C-alpha cells in the first residue's frame, strides 16, 4: 500500500478514495514504486517521468495505468502541500502585516510626541527670543537716557567753564579799568 490513510499530506480526506487509488496502483508492481520513488520530486519532473512511461511501448499497459494513478496521487499530494504552504505564507503575511501596522502605529505615536515636544521647544525659544528683544529694547532705552544725561552733564560743565571764563575776563577787564589812570 503506497498511500497511507493516516498520512495527512496525501491530500485525500476519505479512506475509501485512498483504498481505491491504492487498488489501482497495486495492479502492477511499478505503480507503488513510482509513487514512493517520486515523493520528493516537483510536478514537472513527475510529469516528465509519466510521459516517458506512457510513450514507451515496451511498458505494459497495466504498468502505465498503475503509474498514471500514482502520478495522480502525487499531483494531489503536491497540490495539498502547496495549499498548506500557501496557507502558511498567507498566515505569515497576515502576521507580518499586523506587526507592520503595530510598528507603524508606534512610529506615528512617537512622531506625534516628537512633534509636540518640538512645538513646545519652539514656543519656549520664541518666548525666550521675545524676552531677549524686550531686554535689548530696555537696555537701548537706558543707553539713550544715559547718553542724554551725559550730553546734559557735558553741556552744563561746558556752560560753567564758559561762565567762569567769562567772569574771569570781566574781572580782569574791571581790574584793568581800575588800574588805568584817570
Automatic annotation (TrEMBL):
Belongs to the TEX13 family. GO terms for molecular function: mRNA binding. Residues 5-153 form the Testis-expressed protein 13 A-D N-terminal domain. Residues 104-149 form a coiled coil. InterPro entries: TEX13A-D_N (IPR028193). It comes from the Eukaryota. PANTHER family: TESTIS-EXPRESSED PROTEIN 13A (PTHR23111:SF64), ZINC FINGER PROTEIN (PTHR23111). Keywords: Coiled coil. This is Testis-expressed protein 13 A-D N-terminal domain-containing protein.
Amino acid at each position: 500500500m503506497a498511500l497511507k490513510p493516516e498520512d495527512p499530506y496525501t491530500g485525500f480526506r476519505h479512506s475509501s478514495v485512498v483504498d481505491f487509488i491504492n487498488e489501482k496502483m497495486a495492479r502492477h508492481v511499478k505503480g507503488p514504486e513510482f509513487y514512493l520513488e517520486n515523493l520528493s520530486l516537483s510536478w514537472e519532473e513527475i510529469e516528465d517521468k509519466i510521459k516517458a512511461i506512457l510513450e514507451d511501448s515496451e511498458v505494459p499497459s497495466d504498468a502505465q495505468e498503475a503509474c498514471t494513478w500514482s502520478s495522480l496521487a502525487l499531483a494531489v499530494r503536491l497540490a495539498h502541500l502547496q495549499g498548506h504552504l500557501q496557507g502558511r505564507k498567507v498566515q505569515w503575511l497576515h502576521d507580518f502585516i499586523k506587526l507592520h501596522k503595530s510598528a507603524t502605529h508606534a512610529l506615528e505615536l512617537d512622531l506625534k510626541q516628537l512633534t509636540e515636544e518640538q512645538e513646545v521647544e519652539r514656543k519656549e525659544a520664541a518666548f525666550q527670543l521675545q524676552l531677549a528683544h524686550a531686554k535689548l529694547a530696555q537696555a537701548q532705552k537706558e543707553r539713550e537716557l544715559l547718553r542724554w544725561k551725559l550730553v546734559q552733564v557735558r553741556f552744563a560743565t561746558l556752560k560753567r567753564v564758559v561762565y567762569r571764563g567769562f567772569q574771569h575776563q570781566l574781572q580782569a577787564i574791571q581790574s584793568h579799568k581800575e588800574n588805568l589812570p584817570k
